[in-house]
Amino acid sequence: QGREEGGEGTRGCRALPAGEGRGAAMPLGRALGHHGGTRSRYAGVVCGHSEDAAGALAEALVAPESGVAFDFAVLPLAASGERRVASARRTLPGAALPPPVFPSDLALSSAQWTSQVVGAVSAWVDADSRDPALARDSAAALDAELAWAAHLSLQAAVVPRLGERVAATAHSLLRALGRAQGMSAWVRVPLVADEVIAASSANADAGAALLAKRACDVSGAPGTSLRLAHDPFEAWHELRAMCGHHPRLCVALEVGADLPDGGDAALERWLGEPVRAALISTDAFLTNKHGYPTLSKRHQKLVSTLLQHDVQIVLHGPRRHEPPPAPVVGQQESRAPAHPLAPYLEYVSFLYRRLPAPSECEVAESSYRDFLQSPLQPLMDNLESATYETFERDATKYDVYQQAVETYLREKVPDEQVETADAVVLMMVGAGRGPILSRCLAAADATNRRVRVYAIEKNPNAVVTLQRRAVAEGWGDRVTLIASDMRDAEPPELADCLVSELLGSFGDNELSPECLDGAQRFLKEDGVSIPQEYTSYIAPISASKLHAAVGAMKGSKDDREHYETPYVVKLHSIGVLADTQEAFTFAHPNRPEGGAAAIDNRRYKRFVFEARAQDTPACVHGFAGYFDAKLYGDVHLSIHPPTHTPDMSSWFAIYFPLQHPVHWPAGAALEAHMWRDGDARKVWYEWCVGGPTTTHIHNTQGRSYWVGL
To answer: Is 406 among the catalytic positions?
Structure first.
């Protein structure tokens, strides 16, 4: 049937049966980026109270005539949605037992409970209610229902929305998560508070006035944004902080018809939060001209982004659309009737199929997403063959290097001097197995310039490869190999150009400044360096997944050590909360007045970040670091997001964690400080937040992490 998605017409779109193509409903979530196993529970549906749990589950999971089915169901934990009065008395021996509160665990097999069901705590539960009786009853019910979920070995239980206070709920959740190893709690958090929606609707002047007064009470100043005073994120962050950022405390994000103001920046903070599910209400869907459910452009973008970040989609609410029935073609076997929400699931499946196909570079990088790696120690350690091979797969980097060398050679030797000019002396410091060295020779051939190349390499194993390549590729007398640390090498002549690839994810974090400052003695007075300069950048990020991964690391007596180590990581499940700012810049050759003794590569920078979404609070889990390198002239090599070199994968970003995440209130600026420090033996970074909350200075004096000289 014809459909229109937000005004763009497409023909013949339908959800494919399970196993057919990318949009198969089972599993929707076999998406790029999954490693360490696959996930089959990706699209779920909220079910009401029923004595027949098996029937409710079958209705959701059995593929109907349309060929789509949900992968799991959210079933109420209690048999009834009615409030239960907590009893302070224990049942006496011989007394009649009260009727069971929960349905029988025999209704489903243990495998079904574990893999196909998410439990839902009763909606009336509010352990932090201002009504003492309701708070008492709620606390008892919350404890009992979470204990029942653990008894069933459920993977997750959905917790109702939070109120103004969260301490009692936090207390119960911490106790339940401690007892139930492996079970997660999904806390329902709406994108927009009901009070804000009500105040924004027609004929809501009284409600708006009341909210404005409450906003003033919260902020102490009139005119505060209603969304600021009633942002559900604040209650979630308070709960999460009280629970010590427990790794199994997660978010079930409620997506309704209203989305937050502030554009994409207001939604991006959630990408760094532990969002495990998006509860999409049927009232979020519009109707296209054919009667099918569809989403607004902004909703489409949000759902597509969540799908790309492994967030499970859960549909709920009454059926609000009646699309025309599909035509019957030939004889069809009798199949189960379609679930009432099947048209909405088909649309979600359509959005999944419409996601852009990953590039070869994205496929290669997918297994590294959000995987923490320690930075290299280039002067202390020799790389292994497999590491060299990984780097050498990145043809883009070497293409750019060749372009830079060609640009330099054409500038150094004009066309009219090609026949008479002396050979240009290139010195490759840190030649590795020769990928850039071979590109230097290719640049000379492409420009018809004569060169002599000296290749300096300290790794004796890599030198063997260079010797073999010299013979196999016929380098001849154009290349002279020098097996030495660049700090000790004594080449027979000075160079016109020093070529190196000593950059780290933060530009200078693999000691490129120290290495090149020492190697510049090989240069003639008018000699140049490739790269000529490089600049590092940082930005505050929300990254609960990375922060939890750091916290899970073992093997240190000092709890600070892992939080005071920067990590190389392919950032994925993060929210970038502010635009990047320049950190440190290094230029080469570096010849200050006073000579080599005057070179000081220590740096300090103070940052003041303005949030991308000014009226949106967020949680800062650390800083993302990048670099942009000017190789020569206008030729750049960059992992800085605004100037990222397309399809280059040699470097991932660097992550500077904060031991204690910082709450960033709406409307406030974030002050941060970073140092690059060192002594005669090592170089290290120190960092901290100066406001609105002050943290300790991480890694002072390089106590947890340093790079050895």
So the answer is: no
